[in-house]
Amino acid sequence: MALQRLLLALELRRWTQAGKRARLWWRDDDARSPSRALRRLLDLSDHHAVPLTLAVIPDSEPLRLAPLLARRTQVRVIQHGVSHADHGQAAAGGEFAPEMTREDIVRELSSGWAALRGLPGLFPAFAPPWNDIHPALPAALRCFGFVGLSGWGELSPATRPFRIDAHLDLMRWRGGPRFRGRGRFEADLRAALALRRRQGSWAAPIGLLTHHLAQDEAAWKYLAEFLAWSRRRPEFEWTALDALVAVELLSA
Asked: Is residue 15 included in any domain, yes or no?
């Protein structure tokens, strides 16, 4: 663990010497309704003044979230699938079956988006469950008017809608959800920083992914520590999803 922290410090020094700042953003998945865990998450965002993107599943009564979000101006809401049911027939899971067309997916998107209308901070971006990008999904999103798509692992592909992915998962999932561990998480952060530096992609955002309903106490504790630490570090700047998309729109 001490070695990983040292290696991370050395990577951050390279960013400082280059006069660059890494852009971080935060996405949390699987919100459906008010809960103690969701309030805890929102309070962390408030306390550390870190913008949060809440990926909401529109399959029940998502408007019950409105009172919780009414005064949280740093929170953006995006659509997280339609029902979060696995129809993809893929090992990792997928909501849209392989045979679905663009028109089929547009109809699904429309019903989900209608359920979210009225939520404070609603922004036209889509995070597919299990980060599964169906081949027809980008075209369907363009057709429906979405400007952002958030999956997993890509830097910042020049696609429409603009792809703003997550890269740092707080959790491990094999064998049951649990905290990834400080050493592994910081190794992943260092690798993401080094990749952008080596490719000259300094402005490519690095996305933090959390799951408030699945986090154990170790994950909650480290999340608070990481938010506080990163806010103190001059090498980082936290950015809201809509601001990242606006930058892409202006540079396109």
From this structure: no
Taking residue 14's Cβ as centre, other Cβ atoms within 10 Å add up to 14
83-142 pLDDT, tens per residue? 877 665 555 678 998 999 999 999 999 999 999 999 999 999 999 999 999 999 999 999
Task: Answer yes or no: is 17 within a domain.
Answer: no
Q: CA 80, 82, 83, 84 torsion: positive or negative?
A: negative
Instruction: Decide if 204 is inside a domain.
Output: yes
E-assigned strands of 137-205?
A: 148-149, 162-163, 168-169, 171-172, 178-179
In a domain, 231, yes or no: yes
Each residue of 30-67: b (16+ CB within 10 Å) or e? bbbeeeebbeebbebbeebebbbbbbbbbbeebeebee
Total domains in the chain come to: 1
Q: Would you put residue 81 in left (φ > 0), alpha (ψ -120 to 50) or beta?
A: left
**CATH code, domain carrying 130:** 3.20.20.370
Tokens encoding 187: 């190794």
Q: Which residues pair with 138 in a beta bridge?
A: none
Q: Which domain holds residue 178?
A: 22-251
The distance from CA 203 to its chain's CA centroid, rounded to whole angstroms, is 17
Residue 170 and residue 182: Cα distance in Å, rounded? 9
Q: How many residues does this entry show for the chain?
A: 252
pLDDT, tens digit, 9 for 90 and up, residues 146-157: 999 999 999 877
Helices 217-232 + 36-48 axis angle, to 10: 20
